[in-house]
Write a structure and sequence with these properties.
Length: 232
């Protein structure tokens, strides 16, 4: 486990990225995109799991312009309130620029093989879709992304593998929006959209209040296969 410093995509400063290294070399890299709770204990545990799969896990601190090293849980109303305030103050375009910078840094890690993808959750799930549309990532994985229907019309332009993990009880992603995204992904050669029955938003958040073991295990298996196919 380590932390690296990356120059911001807009050149205004530097931000930290949490890194967990795999035991084998050479290895591809997965840029883990945070939820609204920051690079917290749950995301760090996910990073450890990604490293166990044989990849570098790189989790950038995307809220650094507002507050550095945010580390919140979903266990108290005060933390939820702070997380939503940070989300509302987040500049998505600057975040994408920072993710592109992180992706470039991940490709260049010593012991890496030059391949890198993204995997994001909640807010990060939305940003992973944008990375599929706007970056050269080799693969992108979105878990319960919010507001994905805004990009449904653009999904035809996706050229690299994109996985969409969608909860059928997602309180933050209404059924109409989900249906629009699923329809846009249907028959697309590079996109796979999976819907998880009886699962709520954040069903794969390690230690989270909405953890749904069956959905999480199935989704994580599908993600592992996609990452291995694109990054090994």
């Amino acid at each position: 486990m380590a932390s690296i410093s990356i120059q911001a995509g807009d050149g205004t400063g530097h931000f930290d990225a949490y890194v967990v290294e795999p035991t084998g070399r050479p290895a591809g890299a997965v840029v883990l995109i945070q939820e609204i709770f920051g690079v917290n204990a749950s995301l760090r545990e996910t990073a450890a799991q990604v490293a166990e799969l044989g990849f570098f896990a790189v989790a950038p601190d995307l809220f650094w312009r507002q507050e550095r090293n945010v580390d919140l849980t979903d266990k108290s109303q005060a933390e939820w309130d702070k997380a939503f305030a940070l989300m509302n103050g987040f500049d998505h375009d600057k975040g994408i620029a920072d993710l592109k910078a992180t992706l470039a840094a991940a490709r260049a890690l010593p012991g890496g093989n030059g391949r890198a993808g993204t995997m994001g959750y909640c807010l990060g799930g939305l940003l992973a879709v944008r990375m599929a549309l706007e970056s050269d990532a080799d693969v992108n994985v979105s878990y319960y992304g919010v507001g994905l229907d805004r990009f449904a019309g653009a999904l035809a332009g996706v050229s690299k593998p994109l996985l969409l993990h969608i909860a059928d009880q997602d309180e933050f992603f209404p059924p109409e929006g989900r249906a629009k995204v699923i329809a846009a992904a249907k028959d697309h050669p590079a996109i796979r959209a999976y819907v998880y029955p009886n699962a709520n938003h954040a069903f794969a958040r390690v230690g989270g209040v909405h953890w749904h073991a069956r959905s999480a295990w199935i989704a994580n298996g599908r993600s592992a296969e996609a990452l291995a196919a694109a990054l090994d």
